[in-house]
Amino acid sequence: MESTTENSTMENSPRQSAATVGIDPSIVSMVDAIPSNAPVVPVMRLKDVAVSFNGKVAVRDVTFDVGKNRVTSMIGPSGSGKTTLLRALNRLHDLTKSAVVTGSITLDDVDIYKGGIPTTLLRTRVGMVFQRPNPFPTMSIYDNVASGLRFNGIKKKAFLDDAIEHSLRAAALWDSVESRLKVAAATLSGGEQQRLCIARALAVEPEILLMDEPTSSLDPVSTQHIEDLLTSLKEIVTIVIVTHNMQQAARVSDDCAFLLMGEDRAGELIEFATTEKIFTNPTDKRTLDYIQGRFG
Amino acid sequence: MTSAALEAPRTDDERRAAVQEAASRFYRRKTLYSKLFLGATSLGLLIAFIPLFSIIYNVVRNGISYITWKFLTTPPQSPSIFHKHQIGGISNAIEGTALVFGMALLMSVPISIMVAIALYESHGRVMGALRTLLEVMIGMPSILFGIFIYTYVVERMHFQLTGLAGSLALTVLMVPLMSVACEQALRGVPAVLTEAGLALGAKKAQVMRKIVLRYALPRMLTAIMLSASRGIGETAPVLLVIGSTYVANWNLMTSQTTLTTLMYNIIQSFYNYQRSEVWAIALLLIVVVFVLNLASRIIVARLNRGHR
Ligand SMILES: Nc1ncnc2c1ncn2[C@@H]1O[C@H](COP(=O)(O)OP(=O)(O)OP(=O)(O)O)[C@@H](O)[C@H]1O
Ligand SMILES: [Mg+2]
Description:
The complex is a heterodimer.
Chain A: H1 14-21, H2 25-28, E1 42-53, E2 56-67, E3 71-75, H3 82-88, E4 99-107, E5 110-111, H4 119-125, E6 126-129, H5 141-151, H6 157-170, H7 174-177, H8 190-203, E7 208-212, H9 220-233, E8 238-242, H10 246-252, E9 255-261, E10 267-274, H11 275-280, H12 285-291
Parallel strand pairs in A: 2-10, 3-8, 3-9, 6-7, 7-8
Antiparallel strand pairs in A: 1-2, 1-4, 4-5, 9-10
Helix pairs in contact in A: 5-6, 5-8, 6-8
Chain B: H1 3-6, H2 12-63, H3 69-73, H4 91-121, H5 125-139, H6 143-154, H7 163-187, H8 191-199, H9 204-232, H10 236-242, H11 259-266, H12 272-275, H13 277-304
The structure holds adenosine-5'-triphosphate and magnesium ion (MG).
């Protein structure tokens, strides 16, 4: 599939074009009305990326750039390879014997699969938040957030204390856990646990944060918290987020990648553009069908 | 069967009535079954526990009178026709058990943990075969391990029977039990935790130490405890290679007597009173295993406090 990588500004106003193609205006109104004028700096570039398991292609033909300090969302029906693609970005497929990643993924122009950067260092630069909150159950709140730093050899208490407060504040969790940092992480609510996982990922100061449906197991209030968080977090970190929630993609992301299964049930990138364009004036008919809720 | 259930129902109401009717019939039948099942289970429990309780009852009844401080702390003596009660104590066997079993634990626990990690980490055919081999070893008659150690250790040491040989026999016996059970414990660690660790830039060894092992620790302790209880009660493999001694000398390179080999020896005594001493030793073993069990439970409860 052809995919576009440029982030051109819109010719028409979002609402007008949405009306012409018949998209629910309630979604369109959520699109960040003011497109940022800052030039987009690509920090991670994907070119012809494909992932297969046991020789069977799960996702292919993925080419797009992840813009620095932007939120890039990945949408598409179940099984279209969003998770598979996301996990290729921090080499988490290395664990799976049967998985093969082809094409090129570069971080600051270094190919992450060609030995240019050690995998553990890559993962400190490209962090991840999982679909279900997965704090380490044997550790306290403090130790959870400190874990990434300790794994990377940082032991100084003063440094840790400071980093932990900073990350918990960034994850909007500090106020509610300040007094019980030594308590087991499992005692937190689901939403708090997910914010703890965000703090844990942020503590190692990643440049990119990958998030796989981070709010899908959370209630609306916790979801709201995390969405608000994303908007403020992108000042310090580039975010790639997988979501099933169209409103969420429209609300939080700047760019959007739409994936869909082809005839052989392998996922492929159908369209990549600014979120504004995807939700108001998509190039591909299938993108339009999907955001109008015709399938998926 | 009612008419509603006989014919294919036509309306929603009929369908609902048919399902509810069937459900309540099934419920009545099910309660009868559950009562029968409960009866059978209780009977099974009774059959299992009658011998268990009668063994414990007899052990305590026959053994408790022997147990004094002197009995535990003095070496055995030989009774005679005139001094049938002059049997001395069992300090040699307590020392021997502590020494031989302690050494066996010292060897088998680290080996088993390493084997468990290797089994957990590898996916190859060789390791698969090794696991099968370990599982087969669990089912082998334990005297084989004694014969094995006799052939490869005792004979090489000019037929000298030593406590160390006993420790080795117990190690060979316990390693398969411990390593297979510990691997199971490691497999119980959720993959999402491993992934979370790796996604933070942790190295594989760090994930193993700080996340996987820590999470699996309570279950591993339980597994080690159970295997150790099995080891401490073994007689056959130890008997063959360990010899016997009357003195507590804390030397692994000489013959040793353990609680179980002492039992085997005195049961052949000519004197009634000395023969009945086995009850006292059995009582002591049961208490030791019980205390070990209790201790590990307390530790496991502490480890689990606050999570899961
Ligand atoms: N470890 C694996 N081994 C084999 N096949 C896999 C593996 N992981 C994913 N797949 C396959 O890859 C395809 C894409 O799966 P993926 O989880 O990426 O979809 P998704 O877009 O994230 O779906 P969802 O929205 O339901 O999370 C599926 O057909 C899935 O069966
Ligand atoms: Mg997914």
